[in-house]
């Protein structure tokens, strides 16, 4: 490839970055990186009624969070109005465009649409033909003086020397107008690649009813950026060799439009959950601990007194038990709570059985005598206790687990006790002992 590759992502700040937009940004980013080119960010903010600064910032934050870093920009269309007027004047002077007076809407500038077949070369779908005679003349400068989408897009891509445009195939219908504009302005058109749309699990167009659709929502639900980027990359492209788990760096070296799918992809929530779980299991403990801390802070959990070493232990205890950070927030809520609610079924199944009071009382005495609260030391002491009394470790561990967590599910009991700490563990066992019937017989 002799020319310097220049790609772009051009979102409109009228909402948050959705999954389809994230895929478009990612593909343009990966293509530029694969070919040693430049990736440019352009903000198409000419919709004055719907564009908002908060959405612009949300888009920038979402791209950065996903690891999609731009080399130039952001370029704002709202700051280029003089350039669009200049290009429009050129078309008016050549007779390719004309002024259209509407009594209600005011004066606009329209582009004449030729009556011929327009051939659209495409890197995914090969060549596509459009009958331009089926298209009416179209507005390029609206009555408010702002450019229409197709016009601004063409002028911007030409001025930014964009060589390749990768976008969703919903933009195919814009191609006849855009190619007419490139030709009329005497500007070189970039190469286009239109990727088929993303469908929901039911085969319908992906929408809110299928669950979270914006990057912000996935961030809020506790997904990892690496996992979401990896998953989104596979919605329309395959690296081959059944490869699925890939870092951004891996994808930069592998991305090839020849392996882009020609058919629509389906968004598989279960696949995304699985993939996020794989990343959680394999992320370095320190990084996972930092992500957990940041997530819990966003959930308004008071982390005063919990240092990085403790947070790393929490990460190691739960990484194989969760699919998202939100799962951890729910599953480990007992750790941070001042008081816990006890699951009635767990109480009846475990704590209200005959002999449990004696087991729990003896366990409480053992724990109270422990100065070293490390999980391995606790396990060592309880194994001795079980050998001496002829009890199975599970029969001892489960009542303690329910007493300190409120349910029968947690990491191994000694890791759980170490996470809770001495005071909180003993306090919860004491609370349960007061609730249990005093009449109890040893097992």
Structural features, described:
The protein has 443 residues and is of the alpha/beta class. Helix content is 47%, strand content 12%. The chain contains 19 helices and 12 strands. It has a 3-stranded parallel beta sheet with strand order 1-2-3, with helices on one face. A 3-stranded antiparallel beta sheet has the order 4-5-8. A two-stranded antiparallel sheet has the order 6-7. β6 (117-120) and β7 form a beta hairpin. α14 packs antiparallel against α17 and α15 runs antiparallel to α19. The N and C termini lie far apart (78 Å). The relative contact order is 0.08.
Instruction: Tell the overall outline.
Output: elongated
CATH class identity of the largest domain = Alpha Beta
Structural class of the secondary structure composition? alpha/beta
At the fourth CATH level, what is the homologous superfamily of the largest domain? HUPs
> Helical content, roughly?
40-55%
Strand content: 5-15%
User: From the alpha-carbon coordinates, what is the Rg to the nearest angstrom?
Assistant: 30 Å
Mean pLDDT: 93
CATH architecture of the largest domain: 3-Layer(aba) Sandwich
CATH topology term of the largest domain: Rossmann fold
Distance between the termini: 78 Å
């Amino acid at each position: 490839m002799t020319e310097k590759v220049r790609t772009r992502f051009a979102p409109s700040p009228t909402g948050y970055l959705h999954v389809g937009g994230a895929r478009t940004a990612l593909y343009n980013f990966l293509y530029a990186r694969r070919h040693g080119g430049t990736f440019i960010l352009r903000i198409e903010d000419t919709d004055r009624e719907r564009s908002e600064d908060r959405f612009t910032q949300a888009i920038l934050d979402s791209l950065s969070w996903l690891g999609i870093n731009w080399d130039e920009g952001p370029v704002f269309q709202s700051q280029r109005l003089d350039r669009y007027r200049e290009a429009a004047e050129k078309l008016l002077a050549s007779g390719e465009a004309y002024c259209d007076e509407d009594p209600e809407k005011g004066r606009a500038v329209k582009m004449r649409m030729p009556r011929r077949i327009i051939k659209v070369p495409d890197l995914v779908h090969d060549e596509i033909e459009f009958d331009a005679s089926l298209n009416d003349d179209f507005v390029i400068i609206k009555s408010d003086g702002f450019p229409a989408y197709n016009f601004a897009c063409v002028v911007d891509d030409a001025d930014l020397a964009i060589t390749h445009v990768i976008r969703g195939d919903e933009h195919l219908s814009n191609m006849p107008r855009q190619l007419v504009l490139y030709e009329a302005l005497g500007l070189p058109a970039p190469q286009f690649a239109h990727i088929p749309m993303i469908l929901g699990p039911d085969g319908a167009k992906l929408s809110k009813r299928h669950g979270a659709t914006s990057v912000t929502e996935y961030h809020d639900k506790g997904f990892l950026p690496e996992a979401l980027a990896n998953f989104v990359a596979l919605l329309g492209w395959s690296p081959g060799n059944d490869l699925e788990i890939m870092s951004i760096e891996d994808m930069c070296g592998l991305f090839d439009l020849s392996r882009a799918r020609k058919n629509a992809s389906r968004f598989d929530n279960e696949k995304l959950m699985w993939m996020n779980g794989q990343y959680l299991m394999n992320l370095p403990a320190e990084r996972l601990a930092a992500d957990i801390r940041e997530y819990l802070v966003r959930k308004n959990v008071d982390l005063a007194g919990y240092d990085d070493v403790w947070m790393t232990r929490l990460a190691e205890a739960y990484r194989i038990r969760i699919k998202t950070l939100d799962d951890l927030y729910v599953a480990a809520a007992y750790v941070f709570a001042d008081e816990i609610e006890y699951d009635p079924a767990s109480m009846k199944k475990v704590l209200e059985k005959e002999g449990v009071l004696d087991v729990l009382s003896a366990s409480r005495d053992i724990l109270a005598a422990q100065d070293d609260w490390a999980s391995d030391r606790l396990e060592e002491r309880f194994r001795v206790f079980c050998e001496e009394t002829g009890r199975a470790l599970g029969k001892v561990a489960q009542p303690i687990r329910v007493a300190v967590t409120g349910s029968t599910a947690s990491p191994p009991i000694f890791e759980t006790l170490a996470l809770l700490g001495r005071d909180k563990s003993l306090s919860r066992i004491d609370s349960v002992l007061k609730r249990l019937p005093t009449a109890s017989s040893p097992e």
